[in-house]
Amino acid sequence: MNIGFDVISDLNLDAEDSFDWEDKATSLYLIIAGNISNDLRVVHQTLVHLSKFYQGIFYMPGSLEHDSMHLIKNRYREIVELCRPLKKVACLYRYVVIINGVAVLGANGWYGNKNDLTDSLEKLHLHSQQVEDVTYLGASLERLQLHLDVKKIIVVTHSSPSPELFFKEDPPDLDVQIPMMQVLGQDSENKVVTWVYGSYNKNVETTINNINYINNSCYDKNPYWPKRVNVEV
Question: What is the pTM assigned to this prediction?
Fold first, then answer.
């Protein structure tokens, strides 16, 4: 059985932007790898709109949704509460979705983004959150290895999982950060088949060690279409 997921990220919408997804959906399910908007009203409106076209939406908030690293936990709680009434939307913050044998696991990752921070305390919060996200991903992958209902895993992060996925470009501050791809050491049963990520302004579809890495960020692309990912279970 093949299960299809549309993939999008980095819409970067403002309140005055128009956004119309009519006739663009190609799958029953949608994965959003962050950066809808820094305005939570726009995030809510966008998720409501997208809910018209999908049976399920799996949303991992990006760095744009967080205006302060000091208040990151509060912001995550706001976003979780925003998504809760939307029956077709699952916020992937500390939450795993399992559908037809496929687990969708998410984290922001904070790798190679928010590099404009100048406040040393905010940088400390950023590093702490990145360590927490990497630890969460690794521990979750380890638990899912023994989960009988999970045959395949899609990892969703807002950030790139590895320096090599910047393709020799040189984002700043990576030397003090943890490449998320290291968590694959916990994938002992080789269940991870796809890693969806955002925050990179070029489209990517590449396979490394039998895992498909997908980036379909919008930024200023017009027209912009979803990228369909198929997972065979």
Answer: 0.94
